[in-house]
Amino acid sequence: MEITLSQAVFLFLAAVIVVCSILTVTTKRILRSATYLLFVLFATAGIYFQLNYSFLGAVQLTVYAGGIIVLYVFSIFLTRSDSGIKEKIKNSKVLAGLVASVVGAAICIFITMTHPFPASHVIGDEVNQKVIGTALMGTEKYQYLLPFEVISVLLLACIIGGILIARKR
Amino acid sequence: MFDFKVVTDWIDELLRSWLPASLVNITECVLIGICLLVAYALFALALIYAERKVCAAFQCRLGPNRVGPFGTVQVVCDMIKMLIKEIIEIKHVDRYLFNLAPYIVIISSLLAFSCIPFAKGLEILDFNVGIFFLIAASSIGIVGILLAGWASNNKFSLIGAMRSGAQMISYELSIGLSILTIVVLSGSMQLSTIVESQADGWFIFKGHIPAFVAFVVYLIAGTAETNRGPFDLPEAESELTAGYHTEYSGMHFGFFYVAEFVNMFIVAAVATTLFWGGWMPLHIPGWESFNAIMDYIPSLIWFLAKSAVMVFIIMWFKWTFPRLRIDQLLRLEWKYLLPINLCNLLLMVVVVAFDLHF
């Protein structure tokens, strides 16, 4: 079987995603877990770049790798939660976790097996920046002004809530 | 004007005549990677030498002057010294994260470095979101610094890393907004297009007031982003020994050191590209013969000369101003730079919408 270069790159990225995802949840140290999650996000960004959608890749890098992970690391620093690591997990919790993961895996596998996967419509060139911009800011069908604004209101509520909690009064 | 595309195309054809098509791709990737790493190292050496000489000049000293002519070989010797130093294993640290952190920092710096258009036809990564990718890549470096501070298991390192994280996250906003101001003016995020559209006048002249304000804000925020003086409190040596890289030795320390210097160059290069025309020569509309003479100077020299001026200004900052306190630093960003930047962005939108630029 001949493997093309892009297939090899995809296989590599997929392997990184799978291995690092497993390590994220199995590692005992919380900061290592955040680091493995960072690698998962890098590899996902890599897949976006491979799909020639560099805008989404850059967003992935700047929002998740540069933003969310830094936020995680900061909150780990501030809470020092490494001390509670030797806590025994109860049997009932283990059972519940197992059931949840088996059901989740079953649903995912079922959907992947039954989905027809039509031949993908490949856009040869990079997606133009103007197209993305008008899609985000437009009010017509398949344009996303309303979700965009709803999310910004949600974020504003989060910021106000954060300030309220931090004021300590 | 000499186009470096001629050279790259010639190499490409040469390889294609020797090798099968699939190998050509791999060979070219490896070649580009090697060139990039060599350029990265050379820039770091040149910048370290320049920093020492500039610092000496500001302090009325001579700086390195014994090894080689004007002390130029001194930095090469220092590099060799750094390379053969032992990397000390430290007890009671998370060794995996401790060893990983410098690589994250250097990779993020290298990714950002590879986006810069050095000369006509000499650019490696040229996405249509080029400048955005550059910011995204450089924002990864924060994670490396935070991990380094945490993994060192040393409270000074941790304080340094926390300061650095707070500082870089804050100042990234200013950098992003001032870059956005120029993106509004140019109408593109692709670095090659941004440079091309400055052929009839650099953006600092075309965008007059808002572009100039954006440039000043960018330079301040960029200096803070690279953790350089007067914003170098993450590694304030008088209070934190050396901040997040206190525990590092040998080449692992070298990575932090080199990345800091090249990040300074990246900030300068982005300032050059966005505001001062990148590799574009100075063109004045109407002065045909003047423009023709300017075109004779190679584009690489234009780019390097402009970047050198920017680097000099950043160094000038460091050796002139005293260090800020952390609260002063955050107040400068959130109370002054950010509102100025937002108003400036609005002003730029008005200027572009009513066609008030040149």
Shape of chain B: globular
Question: What's the oligomerization state?
Answer: heterodimer
- What Rg of chain A is obtained from the alpha carbons, in whole angstroms? 21 Å
CATH C-level class of the largest domain in chain A: Mainly Alpha
Number of strands of chain A: 0
- Counting H and I runs of at least 4 residues, what is the number of helices of chain B? 15
Short description:
Chain A is mainly alpha-helical and 169 residues long. Chain A has 6 helices and no strands. Chain B has helices at 5-18, 21-58, 74-84, 95-113, 130-139, 141-151, 155-186, 191-196, 203-206, 208-225, 237-240, 250-275, 288-296, 299-320, 326-353.
Describe this protein's structure.
The complex is a heterodimer of chains A (169) and B (358). Chain A has 169 residues and is mostly helical. Chain A has 2 domains: 83 residues, NADH-ubiquinone/plastoquinone oxidoreductase chain 6, subunit NuoJ (Four Helix Bundle (Hemerythrin (Met), subunit A)), CATH 1.20.120; 43 residues, no CATH class. Helices cover 74% and strands 0% of the residues of chain A. In chain A, α1 packs antiparallel against α2. The longest helix of chain A has 26 residues. The radius of gyration of chain A is 21 Å and the shape is globular. The mean pLDDT of chain A is 83. The mean pLDDT of chain B is 84. Helices cover 70% and strands 0% of the residues of chain B. Chain B starts with a helix and ends in a 5-residue tail after the last helix. Chain B has 358 residues and is mainly alpha-helical. In chain B, α2 packs across α14. Chain B has 15 helices and no strands. The radius of gyration of chain B is 21 Å and the shape is globular. Chain B has one domain. Chains A and B meet through α2 and α3 of A and α2, α4, α5, α6 and α7 of B.
